[in-house]
Amino acid sequence: MIQSIPTARHRQRWRAFSLLELTATVAVIGLVATMALQRYGSTTLGTTRAEGYTRRLVLDLRQAQRRAIATGDDHYVAFASDSGEIVSHTLMRDLPGGDAAADETVAVPQGVTVTSADTAWTYDFEGAVSGSSGGSTVRVDSSTAYWVITLYQATGALRSQRFAP
Asked: Which spans are transmembrane here (predicted)?
C-alpha cells in the first residue's frame, strides 16, 4: 500500500482580487496614463512628424546621389513650394528625352514647415552637387524643434542637425 509523504510546505490557496484592489489598480493606471498624455501630447506628435520627414528627405537625397553614380544620369530632388514654403519633394531622373520621376512624391506632414532657398538639388555622375553655390540648406520646423539639412557641393555629403528653439 502506498502512503503519501507529508511535505514541508502546504499549498497556498489562491484567492481572487477584491473589487477594492481592482479599483485601486485601475485608478493608478489612469493616473499614469494622464501624466503620459500631458508629457507626450500633440507637440510630440508634431516633432515626430518633422523628424520623420527630415529622415525621409535625407534618405531621398542619398538615394539621388547613389542613383546618379550608378546610372550616369543626373538625379535630383525637386521641391514643390507654395507661398515660399515647401509642400512636397520628388526624386527625379534627368533623361535626354525629359525628366522622369524616380520615386513617389512625398508631401510635407501637417504641422511641419519646410523652407529652402533652392528649388532642387541635383547630383551628377560623380556624386557631386551641381547648380548650387558652395552648399545649401533645408530647414524643417516643428513646434518644439527644428532640423537643418546641409548639403556640401564638392562631395555631395549631407549633414542633418537637430536644434531646440
From this structure: 16-37
pLDDT band at 1 (very low <50, low <70, confident <90, very high): low
Q: Which residues contact 151 (CB under 8 A, 6 or more apart)?
A: 61, 121, 129, 132, 135, 136, 137, 138, 157, 158
Asked if residue 91 belongs to a domain, the reply is: yes
Strand, coil or helix: what is 43? Answer: helix
In 3-state terms the chain splits into helix, strand, coil percentages (rounded to 5) of: 30, 35, 35
As given in the structure block, the three cell numbers for residue 118 are: 533652392
Predicted local distance difference test score (pLDDT) of residue 56: 95
Average pLDDT over residues 69-73: 93
Which region, left, alpha or beta, applies to residue 144 given φ > 0 means left and ψ of -120 to 50 means alpha? alpha
The predicted structure's pLDDT at residue 66: 94
